[in-house]
Write a structure and sequence with these properties.
Radius of gyration: 23 Å
Number of helices: 13
Structural class: alpha/beta
Largest sheet: 5 strands, mixed
Oligomer: single chain
Strand order of the largest sheet: 3-2-1-4-5
Length: about 425
């Protein structure tokens, strides 16, 4: 029997280091050409597999693949698309099998968050129920840092670094203007249910008077009265108030402060801008002049200020995924295991996909200060190593240089056109 080809795809919101994981997968596979044939990438995630829109990564030079390690976004395109159960959508699964068979694919590597790990798990189940051997390995990625059974998630460390740096720099700016101008600055960050990214902003505050003075977590019910008292206290004692708010901040009844009234492709609530909501709330109650900012895609695309720890870990999980597959493992996800805080050390572990899929890891109560507005020393000890180290991309004419792959399509072998 000929050696099997591999399928790799990126899913969900991209990060500044997801391509480093792709680099780890492809470079490692190329070192094992005796066991793995070609690595085909799905154009726009699992959609590429369903539509037989595959990219032949063997057409890319070693130099181009290496450059993925310092290039942000998803080099092969991503998607927000969740496979239903086998009973609900058997046609989709039969289509996957047909594409895998047509292209001799025996390895499946899916790089994403909780919903993506669910997809990987379903593909592993598909292998058993439909009699086609596929080794399915989920690869962790999410800026939200909410996957269980791994110390942290590739993609998070760099977002955390960006947020901490940004609120520190903005804090200096507002402090210098507060006497006669802006007294309140609100910075909105990602985090639908888990406040990990918002918590990272707390790393910027080394002293009580440093920004941010307030962090609004999804895990802590928003109390307007207590919040306003805190804002006034900060302006009175520090001259200004800098706030980091998670997009998932909510009231006691679970209502989001900024609910856009729609859902995304995964069925998640589409959240509007919470920063202007909070800023206007403060303006109405106090009259303070304010400014607000929404980090949005900037926080997850900022490869120029990525954490070296994050880059190294992102590459390592991609490498480990291939090595696990070569050992005959399936239905697992590489994890990051912290072995020491001082000095910080980590290694690669593994977790069963069935235990990872659709499970969210929230901020522990012990990481949030009793007043609900800051992070504890325990949280700081956890977060600090994840943003350490710089890994700058190459620059030319003052701008970072990123690679754009050729992404040459694999000739289709199936006659029918499948619409997912």
């Amino acid at each position: 029997m000929s050696k099997k080809n591999a399928f790799y795809a990126q899913s969900g919101g991209v990060t500044s280091v997801i391509n480093a994981t792709a680099c780890g997968v492809i470079e490692t596979a190329r070192k094992h050409k005796d066991k793995i044939g070609k690595v085909y990438a799905g154009r726009n995630g699992i959609i590429g597999a369903l539509t037989e829109d595959l990219i032949d990564t063997s057409k890319e030079t070693a130099r181009a693949i290496a450059a993925l390690k310092h290039t942000p976004s998803g080099a092969f395109g991503s998607c927000r698309y969740k496979l239903k159960s086998l009973d609900e959508s058997r046609a989709q699964y039969e289509r996957l099998i047909a594409v895998f068979k047509a292209h001799n694919i025996g390895y499946f590597f899916y790089n994403g968050g909780g919903d993506s790990q669910d997809t990987s798990n379903k593909v592993s189940q598909l292998s058993k129920s439909m009699g086609y051997p596929i080794q399915a390995i989920g690869i962790p990625k999410t800026v939200d840092n909410d996957l269980p059974l791994t110390d942290n998630c590739p993609g998070f460390g760099s977002v955390a670094k960006y947020v901490a740096v940004s609120i520190r720099e903005a804090g200096f700016d507002v402090a210098s203007m507060a006497k006669t101008s802006t007294k309140v600055f609100v910075m909105e960050v990602m985090g639908r249910h888990a406040g990990w990214i918002a918590a990272a902003g707390g790393l910027a505050a080394e002293n009580e008077s440093d920004a941010p003075h307030i962090i609004l977590f999804p895990e802590v019910a928003f109390n307007k009265k207590v919040f306003m008292q805190r804002v006034k206290h900060c302006v009175k004692h520090y001259g200004y108030c800098a706030i980091v708010v998670s997009e998932g901040a909510r009231y006691k009844d679970g209502t989001f402060l900024a609910d856009a009234g729609s859902v995304d492709a995964f069925g998640h609530k589409q959240l509007g801008g919470v920063a202007p909501v909070v800023a206007q709330m403060i303006k109405d109650a106090t009259g303070y002049k304010y400014h607000w900012a929404v980090a949005d895609y900037l926080q997850r695309a900022a490869r120029h200020i990525a954490s070296k720890t994050d880059v190294d870990q992102a590459y390592a999980v991609g490498k480990a995924a291939v090595e696990f597959a070569l050992k005959g493992k399936t239905a697992i996800m590489p994890t990051i295991v912290r072995t020491s805080n001082h000095p910080y050390r980590w290694k690669i572990g593994e977790a069963r996909l069935a235990r990872v899929a659709n499970v969210e890891k929230m901020m522990p109560k012990s990481y949030i200060t009793p007043d609900g507005f800051g992070i504890t020393q325990r949280c700081r000890t956890y977060l600090s190593p994840l943003i350490r180290g710089e890994d700058y991309p190459p620059y030319k004419n003052g701008l970072p240089q990123y690679v754009q792959l050729k992404n040459i399509a694999v000739p289709k072998k199936l006659k029918d056109n499948f619409m997912p």
